Amino acid sequence: MNWLPSEWRPERLSPSARVGFRHLLPIDVPVVAKLSSVSFPLNYPEYWFHNFCFNAKDEFCAIGCFVEEHLAGFIVVVRDHISYELVHRTTEFERNLAIEADGKLAYVMSLAVDFRFQRLGIGSEMMRVAIANCLCHQLKPKMIYLHVMHDNVGAQKMYSKMGFQHRHTNPRYYYIDRREKAGFILVKDLGAYDSDCAKNKEHLLASDVLAVKKLSKATFESTDDPDWWYEGFCTNRDDDYCAVGCFVDQQLMGYVAISLDYYRKELEKKSTEFEDQLLVEADKKLANVESLVVSRHHQRTGIGSELLRLAIHSCLNHKLTPKIIYLYVDHRNTGAQKLYEKMGFMNRHTEPRYYYDVSGKFQPGFVFVKIL
Prior knowledge:
With 372 residues, this protein is of the alpha+beta class. The chain folds into two domains: 19-189, Aminopeptidase; 208-371, Gcn5-related N-acetyltransferase (GNAT) (Aminopeptidase, 3-Layer(aba) Sandwich). It is built from 13 helices and 14 strands. It has helices at 29-39, 46-54, 81-86, 92-100, 122-136, 153-161, 191-198, 209-219, 227-235, 262-267, 273-281, 303-316, 334-342, and strands spanning 19-23, 60-67, 70-78, 105-113, 143-149, 165-176, 179-189, 200-203, 241-248, 251-259, 286-294, 324-330, 346-356, 362-371. It is elongated, with a radius of gyration of 24 Å.
């Protein structure tokens, strides 16, 4: 399972209890439906749970909190509620809210916590993790809103603490026990949140070495790079690296490290025949993407391409002004290959014995090249 990043831990649980957050999966449909049925006075059809647990169109951020493999709570956020719902039916307030959000409006469709785990902070932590995940997605909503029962004071207090504001009341939103009941609409502006955490992409520092190393080992289990290698681009003493990290709530979610003068750094001592050709083509002004890593639970959210885009822009404005940038990629990693192709890299060469796999066998690597 790919667990989502969270240093949070409820104080009133046993220190040995395993607590984690992950995206909901099809196998979770029965337990999610069961928790929903005891949490809400509404009966949802089974396909409703299938929609966000399967998440075939990547429309939802659906996250569960698990305590010892038991579902303690779940949250479902529609990343683009305008396309999902509001184009079909809406209220005047929601239309105005969509305009205010420049068409980038997310909606908390459901949030439930098992009564045995309530008042531990699970609800607010699920909300925090979900918002951070949404903001790392390519859709990047600017506002998020939700409905809450007018008499659910506990939930209203929790949302208020998280920065949601009561902006509107729909007097007939809920229909329970054959009676209409009012629902409050609470809204949170994600602009400040976005700039503070999800878009927090900064040059790596010496203090980031441990986090960079930990992320690398968690993503590539076979990596055994020495500490001095990480220290080289994090400290960047010779100003010949562009090393950028993406941080969410001060946690490292991904990084890229580019050697801006790879001839002096490495190829002057050791190079392949193809690299010698690239050096001539680039007049020795050759950059190399030494590492591009995104945590497994934040992959396919655009972090990798955004990091690479920022790093290349930084390269072009650096005094070393490389003319060509290249990188190696695992021949089996088709996802990364597609990303690089979209960014203008071309597969120019195959190195048949590029790296060792976990079993100790040589594996080929593709060499992708981009002219700057």
